[in-house]
Specification:
Length: about 375
């Protein structure tokens, strides 16, 4: 059982006890009122005081589990024509392309940037349903995926590909010196937490840690491509506060600032070959692909209805943030956070500038000078 479920039930038991003492009997509305007050108190302890009373990794795992149950069945799964993956497609200015074409564009672009070729090796950290490792395998690259969603591992294995249920923030000795390339196509914003005043330094430590691991997995001349959302423009308006709260509770995680990423890359012993902004493409895929997790996707209640019902029951009983997920989805918060709510044209430069977050591709390689590689942050 998840730690967050234990916490949820402890808060519920406390609510029952307090309500009973206070009202002399158990009145459901009264219990609910006390529960709400305690829940809000927990949120204050988490964000205000900075004590992580909820587990971020479980939040992220549950977010992807929620998608596995509520997106169109086998979104990107076995035997399914692939429409799009969990992240952006690349349009390179041609916004008439279909989501599938844009996704293949992205894979071709990343393949080229990494200088991959048949016979080479790739580790894909945060591999989703494995479309990218599938693409690489078809091109003769020996690709392995890591994800901490068991539903995704099952989906990938059913396609005859290799994936492990492993957290890429941990060091995995078996990959050391074995990879020609390491990719992070959209998972890094789930790696660290937003609580307390030290969120940015925590992000720095976390990014440095997994990037340093990735560097150690590389063969000489190997490359890393990290597609990551960076915090771009945040002011404490009520809408920003409310929506970023929803984002955090649905996905778990934190968006680091550019300066923090630059330092983490440096201290991990890596140098930046290029940084490219693809915020517009990320927003657009959510507008044209209704099955994309960022799209205003329709929940098809006729498809796998029993599974959806059972998962909803599980969510109510075990997931403290089940309500947040639905509100997040209903209020189109994903599109908002990459530039704008639903619109029929790609977002403008001005919208990208004002956007809460920007999607940046970092192409990285190990530093060549020995003394630079030895920098230590602990
Ligand atoms: C936005 S999705 C991107 C998936 C895929 N790269 C794509 O583009 O379709 C993020 C993925 O990262 C995985 N993930 C997030 N944090 C992780 C971690 N610390 N270790 C392993 N997988 C992680 C999630 O399970 C999910 O598969």
């Amino acid at each position: 059982m998840q730690q967050n479920t234990w916490t949820l039930w402890t808060v519920f038991a406390l609510s029952l006890a307090i309500s009973r003492i206070h009202a002399g009997a158990v009145y459901p509305l009264h219990v609910y009122g006390v529960f709400l007050v305690l829940f809000l108190l927990m949120e204050f302890i988490y964000f205000g005081i900075g004590i992580p009373v909820w587990d971020q990794t479980e939040m992220t795992i549950n977010a992807y589990s929620w998608y596995s149950h509520f997106l169109a069945s086998h979104y990107g799964g076995k035997g399914e024509k692939t429409y799009a993956d969990f992240s952006e497609g690349l349009f390179f200015g041609d916004y008439t392309l279909s989501p599938g074409e844009a996704m293949v564009n992205k894979y071709e672009h990343v393949f080229k940037e990494l200088k991959l070729a048949p016979g080479m090796t790739l580790l894909d950290c945060g591999c989703g349903n494995g479309q990218w490792i599938d693409f690489c395998k078809k091109k003769g690259v020996d690709a392995i995926g890591l994800t901490f969603s068991q539903e995704q591992v099952d989906e990938i294995k059913a396609k005859g590909l290799v994936a492990h249920n492993k957290d890429f923030r941990h060091f995995h000795e078996e990959f050391v010196g074995k990879m020609d390339a390491v990719t992070f196509l959209g998972p890094t914003e789930h790696t660290t937490e937003a609580h307390g005043i030290d969120a940015e330094s925590r992000a720095f430590q976390t990014y440095t840690g997994f990037l340093r691991n990735a560097r150690m997995y590389l063969k000489p001349k190997g490359r890393i491509l990290m597609a990551t959302l960076v915090l771009n423009n945040f002011s404490r308006t009520p809408e920003n506060m409310w929506r970023t709260y929803l984002l955090h509770r649905h996905f778990g995680g934190y968006y680091a600032q550019r300066e923090t990423l630059d330092s983490a890359i440096k201290y991990a012993g890596l140098s930046q070959l290029s940084v490219t902004d693809f915020t517009r493409d990320y927003h657009w895929i959510g507008q044209i692909e209704p099955r994309h997790p960022g799209g205003k996707h329709r929940i098809d209640t006729s498809e796998n209805a029993m599974d959806k019902l059972m998962y909803t029951v599980w969510g109510i009983l075990c997931d403290p943030f089940v309500l947040h997920r639905w509100v997040y989805w209903y209020t189109d918060t994903w599109a908002w956070h990459v530039g704008a709510l639903a619109q029929t044209s790609p977002i403008s430069d001005e919208q990208i500038k004002k956007s809460l977050s920007n999607l940046n591709y970092y192409l990285l390689e190990a530093k060549v000078k020995e003394e630079e590689v030895k920098i230590n942050v602990e």
